[in-house]
Design a protein that fits this description.
By secondary structure, the protein is an alpha/beta fold. Helix content is about 35%, strand content about 20%. An 8-stranded mixed beta sheet has the order 3-4-6-5-7-8-11-12, with helices on both faces. A 4-stranded mixed beta sheet has the order 1-2-9-10, with no helix packed on it. A hairpin with a 2-residue loop joins strand 3 and strand 4. The chain is globular and about 65 Å long.
Length: about 290
């Protein structure tokens, strides 16, 4: 009898309206819920991405026995900015990040870097909110301490799920990034691993809000008003939480993933990083002059 009741429960869950969680977002108990979109990436596929002109693959140990896959493109000249990108919940994080970064800063000669989260694109380990935040800080530190970034300023850009990671990095690392850009950010959401009972599982709760008030870097928020995954109201709330010095750009007709290739968004981020770079260089010259006898 108990077995039949369990089977009936599973059938009812699967047949319920909206049970096809994987077809889109599901709002339950006031939180947006998404499936975990992590997918494997073969070694050959990873090598192919790392073989693109100027790029190289990098494995980084973020915890004992846990290595994440990354792609790094050094800047064209010393002192140029390097952009570290934190991807969304995507089944091709490295490819998505590489394409975005090339469109954003390839022509400017910026350094470019993207690392797949634990469990995504062949990175080891299991993704959790705590692990992703900690790993983001380790990736940032590795770029600052290594020769990958060419000793230039480091700018952080996050998209979707990655905006929470990017915000935590900007809030917790020292020195903070030269700038922080959040594309289609969220305030709070839940990511659920695929299961027939996904609608009943608690999932992993990601809350980006605690870090926002601690961000000291110049910040830009960009959100599309046609975003069907993360509503534009979340972008407005994130901008408000960052404080009055943060900038906000709302793009008419821009969807969620489409934001990464939207020329308006790319130009806004490019201009923002360029402006921050000019200000940082001017500040460095002023400090050097004040320190000289």
């Amino acid at each position: 009898m108990a077995r039949r009741l369990r089977a009936a429960l599973v059938a009812a869950v699967l047949a319920a309206p909206g049970a096809a969680l994987w077809a889109g977002r599901l709002q339950q108990r006031g939180l947006l819920r998404f499936p975990l979109f992590a997918a494997p990436l073969s070694e050959a596929g990873y090598v192919a991405l790392g073989s693109r002109p100027g790029w190289s693959p990098r494995l980084l140990e973020v915890a004992p026995g846990v290595r994440v896959r990354g792609l790094v493109h050094p800047p064209r000249a010393p002192g140029l900015p390097t952009v570290l990108f934190f991807s969304g919940n995507a089944d091709a994080q490295l490819s998505q990040g590489q394409q975005f970064l090339e469109a954003l800063g390839g022509a400017e000669g910026y350094g470019l870097a993207v690392f797949a989260y634990r469990g995504y694109d062949g990175s080891e380990g299991t993704p959790t909110p705590e692990a992703l935040r900690a790993d983001g800080a380790r990736v940032y530190a590795a770029l600052r301490e290594g020769a990958w970034a060419g000793a230039g300023p480091l700018h952080v850009v996050g998209f979707s799920l990655g905006t929470g990671v990017a915000s935590a990095v900007a809030a917790d690392v020292a020195p903070p990034p030269a700038s922080l850009t959040l594309l289609a950010p969220y305030t709070e959401l839940v990511v659920v691993r695929p299961s027939p009972l996904a609608r009943l599982l608690p999932g992993d709760r990601y809350d980006a809000r605690p870090a926002l008030a601690r961000v000291l870097s110049p910040a830009l928020v960009v959100h599309g008003d046609a975003d069907a995954s993360l509503p534009v109201q979340m972008g407005r709330a994130v901008h408000a939480a960052l404080g009055p010095t943060a900038r906000y750009l709302e793009l008419p007709g821009a969807g969620h993933v489409a934001l990464l290739s939207d020329p308006r968004a790319l130009q806004a981020v490019r201009d923002f990083i360029g402006e921050a770079h000019v200000k940082a260089r001017a500040g460095a010259r002023t400090r050097a002059a004040a320190a000289s006898p």
